[in-house]
Amino acid sequence: MIELTGVSKYFGPFKALDDIKLTVRTGERVVVCGPSGSGKSTMIRCINRLEEHDEGKIVVDGIELGEDTQNIRAVRQDVGMVFQQFNLFPHLTVLENLTIGPIRVRKMEKAKAEALARQYLDRVHIPEQAGKYPAQLSGGQQQRVAIARSLCMEPRIMLFDEPTSALDPEMINEVLDVMVELAGTGMTMVVVTHEMGFARKVADRMVFMESGRIVEVAPPAKFFSDPDSDRARLFLDQIL
Ligand code: ADP
Ligand code: MG
Description:
This protein is of the alpha/beta class. It contains nine helices and ten strands. Magnesium ion (MG) binds next to helix 1.
């Protein structure tokens, strides 16, 4: 579903991604971890072309990402993304935040878009918040709205970039629970997170990055108990 081969990315002279090779199969859940600045965000942002890679090849759902704007549009229709900051439209209600994409981009009828939106609000367990504005919700609720909003575009892949890092501790689980449920539906997911309980529960594979490189790829059982690299071991010692 996602294939990165020899992908490198520079910011000026600085090499933020260095010869990345990663394949994610349909329905697979990959959790990406590593120290701050190791290139985790840059890598997943390249998957939906929020960043352009400089070298190598990225193919998403059979479409190669390059200069072709039609390809970029096609990939973005396939790929949903949830960020640390929820990025909801503050002047729109929850329901409107969910329907604006389907109506504007998918040209869906309003009634149909609203039915879809309510279905996904149910899925993230906040159907009663449809008429509120983002500022009236807790952080955990806002992030669940952001997840529902992405799902309304019916993506085949969901990318998450530290979705719980901006949340108060007591709200982290309500968001992770929704993500675990999403994993249960068979969604292909790439999740940057340091929530290792979540990773153990859903990850098919752990990817550990450092200095723009993928240092280690392993199933969670192996990664957490007996990582091959000293760097991963050191990292786990620090966060666990
Ligand atoms: P992570 O998500 O693992 O914390 P990032 O992918 O955000 O790391 O960043 C990787 C490196 O690239 C960091 O050193 C960061 O400072 C640098 N970087 C990220 N975005 C930019 C940018 N827009 N311009 C310049 N440098 C950047
Ligand atoms: Mg990041």
